[in-house]
């Protein structure tokens, strides 16, 4: 697919300049003003958080993609919504004048309640690079289960705060395997285009891509992919490509070109704060309580629900416990957050009628990382945009789609780095461990071998063609594969199994799931466009029939 006229019909509709022109004035103005966020946010006092004893028509747990879609569409339908978010608001600059810290200098803002960083790529030249940090409600959670570390965003905007913004619609021929019970014609005709437009998705200008120093690493990736006969594709992103071009020209403050990724982008990226959540707030019907964590949802009188919420401080200590009554509750705490809540509430008797599919069908989207060592005459560049813009599509032949990812260290590394999404068939289950008092996930570390085998269909061939080898210094001492983690948790409350075909928890009228927990473990590409489009589909039905 070319960047100007993508093969995918959904993407063809979205030109990068058409985005600004084609969206509403609120969104357009907000997107253009991304770089002004710190000053603007500092001027606006935070509204009071939800009060103990409050009664709300709709409570949304979590402010990621699913929650933001639900809040906007409900508010537009005239319903008042309160969103509860366990992470911070991320609207106030720190002592350095910036809201977010840099990937190269992680500080107290980087990790969720850790005293040491846990970088996904945690070694360089065989040396560990993690460092001590003060314990704080930072932006990236590296949540550890037995066999896997699951990275998630924490704060108003959920994963959109930390992710790379790669906004990919699955190939239509793969959709039946992604969401088998959903009408593909509706998704590709209505909901994917709607999600892409609202998210502000665009593609890099291929002429600029071919000339800019900051994508030399990606051009090396393209050259190697094509010389081995693999399809190379440009990948859309929500980053403002015009802003990035101005970063390269030196006329605006750098973000992607300053290595900002993982711990937030101070400029350029259209996170949910600039898109869905800005529009939701502009309705005047949506309130958000940051640093509030939902711990229980249980039936109350009159068909309503009692929601127990802990307010926490920035060290994680609970400062208040609130009981709120809601007519309806949307679980949008992410695949892991929603699954953990539902499994615990079913097992401990708060919601015993949830069906036996709750907690099942969890997958890692087949994530696996690796690096390749290039020859000295094939440098990847000291200046690398932290926003990936292309990939290698070997899904049909080898079960792997590999993002050509940056290594934005600021120095020449002679490395090519990749995050592969693979067709890993393994699925895990969340369950309640009563003696430990926590929810566990039975993912097995060995299950990643399937992903490695699929990723090797690409990189063994490239190494053979180029006469190169794998890097062994990025994930430990002589360790090739980043196979201990995922960025893309999916499932745990799968659509049409744990819920009905629109996310209703049918045993409890008024309870809904509307996030990545609905998706059965794999989307064949990066997941947030699919999570957003599915939420658009489901909320439209719920508003039409339930409200
Ligand atoms: P999510 O965005 O995780 O939002 C859930 C929210 O609920 C979070 O803000 C939580 O803090 C909050 N929460 C959880 N529990 C509670 C509770 N009990 N009470 C109150 N609040 C709670 O869910 N995807 C792509 O498509 N493209 C990319 O380029 C990409 N890059 C990524 C890079 C990184 C480093 C990471 C971590 C993820 C990346 N992803 C990417 C994945 C993507 O961000 C993720 O699939 C979505 O954010 C999931 O959306 P949800 O709405 O399911």
From TrEMBL:
The keyword Isomerase applies. Pathway: Steroid metabolism; cholesterol degradation. Its cofactor is FAD. PANTHER family: CHOLESTEROL OXIDASE, FAD-DEPENDENT OXIDOREDUCTASE 2 FAD BINDING DOMAIN-CONTAINING PROTEIN. Residues 486-535 form the Glucose-methanol-choline oxidoreductase C-terminal domain. Belongs to the GMC oxidoreductase family. InterPro entries: Cholesterol_Oxidase (IPR052542), FAD/NAD-bd_sf (IPR036188), GMC_OxRtase_C (IPR007867), TAT_signal (IPR006311). GO terms for biological process: cholesterol metabolic process. The lineage of its organism: Bacteria, Bacillati, Actinomycetota, Actinomycetes, Streptosporangiales. Its EC number is 1.1.3.6, 5.3.3.1. This is Cholesterol oxidase. It comes from Planobispora rosea.
